Amino acid sequence: MTKYQVPKDFLWGSASAAYQIEGAHLEDGKGVSNWDEFVKIPGKTFEGSTGETAVDHYHRYKEDIKLMADMGLKTYRFSIAWTRIFPTGRGEVNKKGLEFYQNIVDECLKYGIEPMITLYHWDIPQALVDEYGGWEGSQVIDDFVNYSTFLFEQFKGKVNYWITMNEQNIFTSLGWLTAMHPPGKFDDQKTFYQVNHHAFLAHAKTVIAFKDIIPDGQIGASFAYSPSYALDCNPDNAMSKVDFDNLKNFWWMDVYAYGRYPKNAMTYLEKQGIAPAVTKEDESLFKKAASLIDFMGVNYYQTTVCEYNDLDGVTPYAKMNTTGVKGTNEQTGIPGVYKTANNPYLATTDWDWTIDPEGLRYACKEITSRYNLPIVISENGLGAFDTLESDGSIHDPYRISFLEEHVKEVIKAIDEGCDVIAYCTWSFTDLLSWLNGYQKRYGFVYVDRDEKGGSLKRYKKDSYYWYEKVIETNGTSLFE
């Protein structure tokens, strides 16, 4: 027996996103999304990779879910493509698209896998972008709520766990500040904060509507959380950590959990002239939704080290490593506030992401202390170069080591009082890694494809069998 105990009903899971796995980008009535258009811009993605075929989950979902069942997966987190349900964002329902997701849910339930649906994983209908700027227009709030409530009605009684938005902080930052995601705008800070305000309102109204339709269901948002450390005990660097947290972490999590923006951060933005317009009605909606959410969703990959940034220091607009060539990431920050620094105590991935298993426990404890909410770890994983051997095997001890150390920290966090109810790896199969193409692999299942194509055949990696044992033993195998 180990001193660590995982709850018997713990949801061992894995995750995916529609654009990254489905393919069939214009099949069976699906509409065009912002990502379908964005990837056509030369130089935006690695070797021009797109999700037009992705890993063909649209046609192979039964095979993929059977692989999940054989592993013993308890929950599968996946997103719904808004454009498959409402091809132009609203109006007539695309019955073929709805049927596809009904089939996925039913296939999961057939094997006893709890479906966990993400309503928005970055692919808004292009028609709404063309009409009113997508997330830039306040009309998106009602259109998102209409889309979401339709799905609640369709899947009530079958789907208990829902996530409103995936990594709102990432899709807005890369979309309106660095031009790396759609709509590809650069340094549009005023719009960035207003876009986030619209997304928060869409989240809030959706949570409120959800509780009317599925009162016993569970709902929250998934936040890309990078806990921070001060570089040292220099008060200037300690203050940079506080400012980083308020502007880069609590700006989102405080709205989800408390229904308000952090006061220090709002004061800073008001002085800069870039704060969003917030009405009393908005504040009321935020508060009501915050009282209703059931968990904090966390996508955890790395921690951040903060130090003071001079007024003429680095900006948020540095180069990001999207090639897997180690050492090509650059420092980012806000002049006069903070900048990121390397952590000399930790290794990094080929994409320069810091490997910090203890940071996940740190994140869980911070959320527990600050918000006292259950936690769904909705993503955690290692992107790496994998090799398919001639005998069909894939040896990925680096992934096993990464996940093992992170899962151990989750279990320790539970032992220390954190109410973690689910752990979803990213991802189940290999998939399109947005800007990084198909070379950056995350899955337990290798998919034979690269930027030029491939057979799309599935192969189990060594990590597949490792996770199978973790699930079978409810985590006790990690401490043997």
Structural descriptors:
hydrolase; Glyco_hydro_1; TIM Barrel; 480 residues; 14 strands; alpha/beta; 14% strand; globular; four-stranded mixed sheet; 40% helix; eight-stranded parallel barrel; single chain
Could you explain the architecture of this structure?
With 480 residues, the protein is of the alpha/beta class. It has one domain: Glycosidases (TIM Barrel). The chain is 40% helix and 14% strand. The protein has 15 helices and 14 strands. It has helices at residues 18-21, 34-38, 57-71, 82-85, 95-110, 126-132, 139-155, 168-176, 189-213, 235-258, 263-272, 280-290, 357-371, 397-415, 462-472, and strands at 11-15, 75-79, 114-120, 161-166, 218-224, 228-230, 296-299, 304-307, 333-334, 338-341, 375-379, 420-426, 445-447, 458-460. It is globular, with a radius of gyration of 21 Å.
Task: Put the structure in a nutshell.
With 480 residues, the chain is an alpha/beta fold.
What topology does this entry show?
Blueprint: E1 11-15, H1 18-21, H2 34-38, H3 57-71, E2 75-79, H4 82-85, H5 95-110, E3 114-120, H6 126-132, H7 139-155, E4 161-166, H8 168-176, H9 189-213, E5 218-224, E6 228-230, H10 235-258, H11 263-272, H12 280-290, E7 296-299, E8 304-307, E9 333-334, E10 338-341, H13 357-371, E11 375-379, H14 397-415, E12 420-426, E13 445-447, E14 458-460, H15 462-472
Parallel strand pairs: 1-2, 1-12, 2-3, 3-4, 4-5, 5-7, 6-8, 7-11, 11-12
Antiparallel strand pairs: 8-10, 9-10, 13-14
Helix pairs in contact: 3-5, 7-9, 8-9, 9-12, 10-12, 13-14
